Amino acid sequence: MIGQRESVSGAHFAFTDRWGGVSAAPYAELNLGGAVGDDAEAVRANRELAAKTLGLDPGLVVWMNQVHGSEVAEVDGPWNVRNVPQVDGLVTVGRGVALAVLTADCVPVLLADPVAEVVGAAHAGRPGMVAGIVPETVRAMVRLGADPARIVARTGPAVCGRCYEVPEAMRAEVAAVEPAAHAETSWGTPAVDVAAGVHAQLDRLAVHDRERSPVCTRESEDHFSYRRDRTTGRLAGYVWLD
């Protein structure tokens, strides 16, 4: 259920895998995405299971309506379920609230400055990475008192540059914005490495305490992958403070 979990100075980072939930195929088993065609009650049950496994109150987990953009919202608690804004980044101050990001090949970016008690989460797909969602999220954290030198950044399972094939023109467009994302597939065709681009952006922002998951979602049967399966579930990354 929880494929990766880490605690650093009172900040907690967790990424799910696909197992341990109640969803039926093709969303089996721990689908946490509410907009992929799965049964709503199964998604609710899965979110409760994941939160309780992490020791979180399911009612204090904040989700996003992700649109591959660069908008960031500051929150102090969960949204009204009928009014979740279209954003790809969240930031919050203080303890008691967990931020969540959904992915199925995109890069989940979790950020925390435990000293300033500021946390952030970003959904960085190829369009969002190019649009600057990660720098925007870091800047929003800084406005709340975070120091990039103190920010701990963790990126979770995502499609790797060896597997994310794109047309040559698209690779060129992406690399013109973020050269670090230029990649080639294992079979020798143009590709994009979104996680490499994200980490290059974080490095330029002086966020140096970073780790990247070695898991490629397209290669791993333990993780959902849109590029591999098309109709599939969503993984989640969570960040919170003690």
UniProtKB/TrEMBL annotation:
Gene3D superfamilies: CNF1/YfiH-like putative cysteine hydrolases (3.60.140.10). Keywords: Copper, Hydrolase, Metal-binding, Transferase, Zinc. It catalyses: inosine + phosphate = alpha-D-ribose 1-phosphate + hypoxanthine; adenosine + phosphate = alpha-D-ribose 1-phosphate + adenine; adenosine + H2O + H(+) = inosine + NH4(+); S-methyl-5'-thioadenosine + phosphate = 5-(methylsulfanyl)-alpha-D-ribose 1-phosphate + adenine. Pfam families: Cu-oxidase_4 (PF02578). CDD domains: YfiH. Belongs to the purine nucleoside phosphorylase YfiH/LACC1 family. PANTHER family: PURINE NUCLEOSIDE PHOSPHORYLASE LACC1 (PTHR30616:SF2), UNCHARACTERIZED PROTEIN YFIH (PTHR30616). This is Purine nucleoside phosphorylase. It comes from Streptomyces sp. 900129855. The lineage of its organism: Bacteria, Bacillati, Actinomycetota, Actinomycetes, Kitasatosporales.
